[in-house]
User: Which sequence fits this backbone?
């Protein structure tokens, strides 16, 4: 697949050209984040309002999940914003081999040192493809960056203090997903399936500091909204859903995997925070929770929407289902060996 050559960007003059600054307007996600933070404040200010046994259990799980995950979410957002603002796009083009077969593992491994949240990984991958990077390599980076970066690994270790192999398993399975999908695209992907992302105009005059602050603010509010939704769901599952039903699902190897994979797709929790939600679902096996952790960063409802908008619906309807199948298979294989 060939695209028209683009003007060379000088890193010292206009490295931020083409970066789409997030909209500063208040969105429904921002309002959701603020509104759901209110119960956390009330939990500490007016504990007498949470005296019922069921309500006390629900609020305890919800607050614990959100507060444990929040520091890792903040660190991840700041790192992602720093990369967006200060790492020139030409860096990736220089660092990756020209051959897709070799570029895929290099791009996949780069996710461990150049972290980014799921939301940021899609436009970054689009920018790489637009600048001539092989699509297979860009897609491998898209899948690995939010899944194997140091913040995610440390968060998983903290969330599972008694199960150190959980973090190891997550790293290995997630990297395998990125490599397999990259190689599959290199072997079978068709240029007609992938719509080339267009350069976004109108932000070339923004300074690096402005890009950093604006991106961090946007990503924190956006990812924070999904975090609190995940906390709400985890707390509700632990309190409202009958324990007998949870035990029945958890005892079934097939059902538990399907349910956890479905939850990962629907909840769309930030990868820096999802380990704490998974750790709270103690009825489920470690392997089924590993499926949750591997699937979430590579395919969920918001990623499918972002991929469709960036690369076109013909890409999303093929890439997302294939990624889901590969992610479940890799998580099961690694879980069977390590857990």
Assistant:
């Amino acid at each position: 697949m060939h695209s028209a050559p683009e003007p060379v960007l000088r890193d010292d003059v206009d490295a931020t050209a083409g970066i789409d600054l997030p909209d500063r307007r208040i969105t429904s996600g921002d309002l959701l984040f603020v509104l759901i933070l209110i119960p956390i404040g009330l939990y500490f200010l007016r504990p007498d309002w949470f005296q019922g046994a069921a309500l006390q259990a629900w609020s305890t799980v919800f607050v614990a999940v959100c507060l444990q995950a929040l520091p890792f979410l903040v660190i991840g957002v700041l790192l992602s914003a720093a990369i967006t603002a200060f790492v020139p796009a030409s860096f990736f083009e220089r660092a990756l081999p020209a051959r897709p077969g070799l570029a895929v593992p290099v791009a996949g491994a780069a996710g461990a040192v150049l972290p980014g949240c799921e939301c940021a990984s899609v436009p970054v991958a689009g920018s790489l493809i637009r600048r001539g990077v092989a699509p297979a390599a860009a897609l491998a980076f898209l899948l690995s960056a939010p899944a194997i970066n140091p913040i995610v690994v440390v968060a998983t270790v903290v969330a599972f203090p008694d199960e150190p192999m959980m973090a190891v398993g997550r790293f290995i399975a997630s990297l395998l997903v990125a490599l397999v999908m990259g190689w599959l695209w290199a072997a079978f992907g068709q240029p007609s399936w992938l719509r080339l992302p267009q350069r976004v105009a109108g932000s070339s005059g923004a300074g690096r500091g402005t890009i950093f602050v604006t991106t961090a603010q946007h990503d924190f509010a956006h990812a924070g909204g999904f975090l609190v939704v995940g906390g709400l769901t985890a707390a509700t599952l632990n309190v409202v859903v009958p324990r007998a039903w949870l035990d029945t699902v958890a005892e079934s190897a097939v059902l538990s995997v399907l349910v956890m994979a479905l939850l990962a797709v629907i909840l769309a929790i930030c990868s820096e925070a999802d380990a704490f939600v998974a750790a709270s679902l103690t009825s489920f096996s470690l392997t089924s929770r590993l499926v949750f952790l591997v699937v979430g960063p590579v395919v969920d409802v918001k990623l499918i929407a972002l991929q469709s908008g960036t690369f076109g619906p013909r890409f999303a309807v093929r890439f997302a289902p294939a990624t889901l199948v590969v992610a479940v298979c890799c998580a099961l294989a690694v879980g069977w060996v390590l857990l």
